[in-house]
């Protein structure tokens, strides 16, 4: 019996929920544990597991209804989730008498409790309640709407803006569970009970869910949270630690977390006491430093002074602080002056050439006509490589580093006119004075005294940066940094080392892991690679994270935080979340060597080096490798980069086949796998398809969920979704033959698209064009991967076969043909009667207009569509080929291009007609649709008089005009609707001309 996920998946709603979760930023459940790349949304993981366990019935709509009810994504579940926090008074009403007297008044919490205290009290009350009381409390959330009907009238994506995420409610109500149980023939009262019943029905036990590339830990964490046995493995120790922490730290009780918080407090205050005694963050004005701003400076050939480098010298736009530079008599170092200016002065300053480093060139701050290439400064031999015992530049280095600004603060108490004492924080920016530079020297001295001892104890990094890496080579090449500690200032190394030195052997594992993870998070926001953001939205200014992108980019100016500013981030507790299953296991092991059997494998494998996890993860691992070894003696602190699966060549394919063969071997016979990836290239699909085929797996379905939040913010043709490919073991290896495969693929593609169209809801489509195209690929894989070989060719031989450039495998040819079938099956609404008579290039143009009318602007989608129709050159048809701003030409716009156009006697430009010699032209140039578009243009240019357009068509086609007239009318009526579509305003004039011309052709008679 197929599972629910093999027959359907609520794409639109899951995409909306995934997007909402990703946009939650720091309030996502797992992000507080530490930085990782590509974590999959928890709601997607939850839905996938339930979809793989839930059986499909003959009633697809009822299946969908019940599936959404389980996830509280149905209309009633959404209303249950509508609203924000549960009011404090409602917690009081269900709390024990002891809690009521201790923490509450008649109206809510007692005064004096911090928000953190309130959250913990709520959590303790919540954990003490029965399921029935938890469900009751869920209904007390503050509502944003007066009635449910008012709420239900909104589209789903707007409704969830007013809802908490599914993970933050107890689950379906008792009435809803009755409906779920009736359909599934179960007796569950909550999600873990349902998981148990479905698992026992399928596998005879609680289902075991595994992920052999666990990364940030989303899959094992969510599996454990909803009651599955969870297994996670990875080569990378950072991934292993994050996954372990998700289950064991986020899943700990509030009491256990309170103990850990006490450890964190003690470590911080002990370190802060030492740092205060050193006097390295305080001055004699009663102020404490909050931030230190550094920059690189160089002395180019022919220049008498070192030039400080920065892209801007505005340090706080909101409070109008800027830096200006002065020459110093008798010195080759400039002096910084930090000023607070008026708004007018700030605007004038910003308009001036304020940068001293721009587009790789050094700019003289006193002579804008003098610039130097940064590459020429580095010289042909590059920069000197720093040694392990160094933590700052030497006096003879080409690139020097200097402190140029400090932000100070102090608390001032005063009494207002009401007699109330108010504490105010007063901040100022200042250039470092002599005492500040002496404090910098003290930092260097203190660090030098402790450096080797702290490295040996693992309190500061000691590892080398790997050479030859795509990302790790950047700091080596551009700055000469050879060890991970070079990415941190002496001040950062000293304060972090002081903090970690408080860790003792008596601390529990959970306490040590919390401390080192929190420090790793802080390292991301406080290194030499952190941009100082002076933007207004950042108030007085703030550092940005090291990994603002997936790279290690050394900067010419950067900001650092003082230790006094780190309390909240180092000591803030993790979010508590109840983890149902305690049957979990995390291993650091190569996926090829796994011997653990799982019922469901859900994996998000690395592909084509999209992210260099093994390189970027070392940034964090360098801070806690030795502590990791103490807490997890069986784990290796080496990322074992040489074993990492990466690249896209033969070695990569071989590794992937071995991995998925092993997972198939260690999977229940009736189990499933889900492979997630984010590519839309048919060659990539063919590659991955052959890998899974050779691994003994067969595809049964594929779905695309929108999971990325950055596509609308970044420039470029970014992938927006995650493809979820569903697989089972191929039990029987029957031979297949290409001549038999093609018609089967065609039938499967049409069947899959028909099923998807039937499930689409009016006003809330589940699928877009990308989904339909990916469904075509999946349909082809479903047919191909059921066979043991194809035309007698050995599967593994085909996977590893070396092909000439542009040579395609049989696998890829079939997949591309599937796309063509899909494109031909997806006829734009209103063109059903005309479609059969159109050429492929005409169909492409109209389908491209169709997807444009629905808001599609990604260039990649237009290129993908062209593959399906066999159109090799789409550039002449595109008015814009911007990555996320692609648009097709309108009739008037296209008629003025050089697409197969010749001049007539009046020098007007007209399309090439029959019999005219125009040389090689685009296949669209002489198509009937192209001539029809020119007729629209003639009509629009004649103040919407249809006669020139009608006459042009009659002259062009002669007697054929009469046989084509009905088809022209259908096309004109379809084009006439485009001008009324949102985002297609530039079609307004041509659409009106098309409408008028259609009316004239309808009334035309011989």
UniProtKB/TrEMBL annotation:
Pfam families: DUF1156. GO terms for biological process: methylation. Residues 8-69 form the DUF1156 domain. The lineage of its organism: Bacteria, Pseudomonadati, Pseudomonadota, Betaproteobacteria, Burkholderiales. Keywords: Methyltransferase, Transferase. This is Adenine-specific DNA methylase, contains a Zn-ribbon domain. GO terms for molecular function: methyltransferase activity.
């Amino acid at each position: 019996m197929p599972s629910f996920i093999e027959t359907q998946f609520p794409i639109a709603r899951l995409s909306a929920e995934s997007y909402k979760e990703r946009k939650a930023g720091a309030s996502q459940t797992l992000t507080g544990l530490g930085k990782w790349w590509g974590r999959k949304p928890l709601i997607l993981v939850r839905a996938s597991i339930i979809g793989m366990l839930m059986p499909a019935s003959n009633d697809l709509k009822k299946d969908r209804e019940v599936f959404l009810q389980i996830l509280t994504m149905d209309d009633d579940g959404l209303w249950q989730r509508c609203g924000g926090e549960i009011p404090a008074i409602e917690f009081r009403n269900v709390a024990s008498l002891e809690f009521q007297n201790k923490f509450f008044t008649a109206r809510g919490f007692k005064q004096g409790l911090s928000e953190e205290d309130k959250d913990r009290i709520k959590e303790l009350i919540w954990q003490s309640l029965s399921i029935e009381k938890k469900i009751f409390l869920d209904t007390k959330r503050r509502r944003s709407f007066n009635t449910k009907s008012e709420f239900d009238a909104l589209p789903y994506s707007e409704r969830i803006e007013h809802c908490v995420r599914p993970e933050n409610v107890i689950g379906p109500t008792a009435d809803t569970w009755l409906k779920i149980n009736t359909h599934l023939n179960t007796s569950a009262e909550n999600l873990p009970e349902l998981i148990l019943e479905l698992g026992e029905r399928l596998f005879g036990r609680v289902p075991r869910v595994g992920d052999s590339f666990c990364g940030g830990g989303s899959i094992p964490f969510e599996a454990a949270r909803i009651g599955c046995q969870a297994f996670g493995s990875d080569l990378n120790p950072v991934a292993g630690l994050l996954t372990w922490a998700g289950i064991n730290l986020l899943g700990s009780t509030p009491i256990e977390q309170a103990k850990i918080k006490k450890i964190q407090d003690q470590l911080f205050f002990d370190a802060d006491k030492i740092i205060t005694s050193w006097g390295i963050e305080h001055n004699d004005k009663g102020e404490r430093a909050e931030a230190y701003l550094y920059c690189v400076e160089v002395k180019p050939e022919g220049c008498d002074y070192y030039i400080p480098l920065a892209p801007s010298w505005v340090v706080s736009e909101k409070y109008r602080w800027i830096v200006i530079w002065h020459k110093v008599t008798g010195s080759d170092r400039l002096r910084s002056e930090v000023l607070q200016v008026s708004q007018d002065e700030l605007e004038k300053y910003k308009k001036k050439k304020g940068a001293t480093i721009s587009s790789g060139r050094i700019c003289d701050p006193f002579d804008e006509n003098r610039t130097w290439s940064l590459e020429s400064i580095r010289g042909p031999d590059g920069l000197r490589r720093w040694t392990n015992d160094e933590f700052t530049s030497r006096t003879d280095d080409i690139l020097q580093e200097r402190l140029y600004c400090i932000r100070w603060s102090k608390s001032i108490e005063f009494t207002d006119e009401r007699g109330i004492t108010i504490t105010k924080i007063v901040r100022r920016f200042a250039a470092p004075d002599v005492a500040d530079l002496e404090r910098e020297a003290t930092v260097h001295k203190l660090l030098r005294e402790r450096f080797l001892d702290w490295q040996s104890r693992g309190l500061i990094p000691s590892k080398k940066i790997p050479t030859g890496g795509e990302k790790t080579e950047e700091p080596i090449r551009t700055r000469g940094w050879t060890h991970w500690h070079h990415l941190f200032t002496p001040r950062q190394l000293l304060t972090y080392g002081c903090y970690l030195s408080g860790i003792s052997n008596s601390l529990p594992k959970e306490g040590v892991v919390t401390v080192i993870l929190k420090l790793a998070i802080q390292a991301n926001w406080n290194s030499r690679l952190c941009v100082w953001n002076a933007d207004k939205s950042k108030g007085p200014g703030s550092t940005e994270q090291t990994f603002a992108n997936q790279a290690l980019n050394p900067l010419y100016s950067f900001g650092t935080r003082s230790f006094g500013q780190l309390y909240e981030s180092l000591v803030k507790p993790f979010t508590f979340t109840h983890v149902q299953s305690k049957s979990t296991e995390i291993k650091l092991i190569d996926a090829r060597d796994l011997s653990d059997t799982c019922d469901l494998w859900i994996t998000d494998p690395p592909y084509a080096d999209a992210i260099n996890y093994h390189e970027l993860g070392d940034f964090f691992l360098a801070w806690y490798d030795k502590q990791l070894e103490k807490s997890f003696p069986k784990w290796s602190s080496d990322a074992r980069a040489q074993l990492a699966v990466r690249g896209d060549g033969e070695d990569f394919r071989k590794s992937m086949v071995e991995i998925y063969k092993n997972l198939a071997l260690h999977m229940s016979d009736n189990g499933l796998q889900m492979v997630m990836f984010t590519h839309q290239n048919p060659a990539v699909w063919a590659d991955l398809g052959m890998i899974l085929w050779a691994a003994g797996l067969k595809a049964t379905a594929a779905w695309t969920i929108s999971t990325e939040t950055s596509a609308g913010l970044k420039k470029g043709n970014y992938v927006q979704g995650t493809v979820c490919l569903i697989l089972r073991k191929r039990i029987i290896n029957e031979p297949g033959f290409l001549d038999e495969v093609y018609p089967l693929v065609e039938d499967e593609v049409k069947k899959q698209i028909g099923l998807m169209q039937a499930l689409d809801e009016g006003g809330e489509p589940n699928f877009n064009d990308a989904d339909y195209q990916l469904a075509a690929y999946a349909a082809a894989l479903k047919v191909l991967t059921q066979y043991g070989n194809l035309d007698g060719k050995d599967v593994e031989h085909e996977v590893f076969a070396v092909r000439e450039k542009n040579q395609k495998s049989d696998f890829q040819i079939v997949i591309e043909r599937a796309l063509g079938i899909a494109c031909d099956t997806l006829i734009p609404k209103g063109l059903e009667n005309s479609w059969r008579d159109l050429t492929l290039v005409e169909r492409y143009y109209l389908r491209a207009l169709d997807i444009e009318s629905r808001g599609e602007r990604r260039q990649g989608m237009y290129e993908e569509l062209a593959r399906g129709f066999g159109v090799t050159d789409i550039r002449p048809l595109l008015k814009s080929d911007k990555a996320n701003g692609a648009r097709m030409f309108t009739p008037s716009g296209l008629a003025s291009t050089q697409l197969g156009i010749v001049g007539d006697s009046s020098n007007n430009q007209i399309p090439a007609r029959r019999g005219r010699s125009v040389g090689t032209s685009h296949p669209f140039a002489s198509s009937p649709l192209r001539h029809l578009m020119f007729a629209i243009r003639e009509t629009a240019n004649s103040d919407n008089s249809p006669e020139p357009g009608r006459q042009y068509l009659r002259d062009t086609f002669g007697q054929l005009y009469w046989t084509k007239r009905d088809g022209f009318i259908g096309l004109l009526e379809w084009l006439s609707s485009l001008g009324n579509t949102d985002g297609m305003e530039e079609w307004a004039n041509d659409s009106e001309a098309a409408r008028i011309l259609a009316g004239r052709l309808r009334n035309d008679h011989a």
